[in-house]
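Notes from the 1:1 (GR / supervisor)

We went over the backlog. Supervisor wanted to see one worked example end to end before approving the batch request, so GR pasted a single chain during the call. The sequence is below; no edits were made to it. Supervisor asked that the structure be written out right there so they could see what the output format looks like.
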Amino acid sequence: MISWSVKLNKTSDFIGKKAIIDGKDTKFSDIMLGFEVVGRSIPRTDMEILNDKEEKIGSVTSGTFSPTLKKNIGIAYIKKEYKDFTDLKIKIRNRVEAIKIIKLPFYKRNKGD
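Structure output shown during the call:
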């Protein structure tokens, strides 16, 4: 839900308020997660996130190789019911590779740096 950015308890009306209240816009019911590709492939926008049965459950919003972390990382939205799954995969071109869920933010600078 996007309640952190929209006050739905006000009496004023705006475009899309009913859809948000009714929960019809499923994009806002998805969960954002950070991940690392276990293999060597780099994730890119719109690549599919798959469950253990290789069914699409989400998609990548952004991904790249992180020179700081020396890993291939990305951010994706997945269906809420898969938030606790650990056996997730990404479809990169014609291959399917395992991903590991990473807590966001990926990198936190130490106060002394």
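Supervisor's comment: The first strand starts at residue 31 and ends at 37.
Batch request approved.
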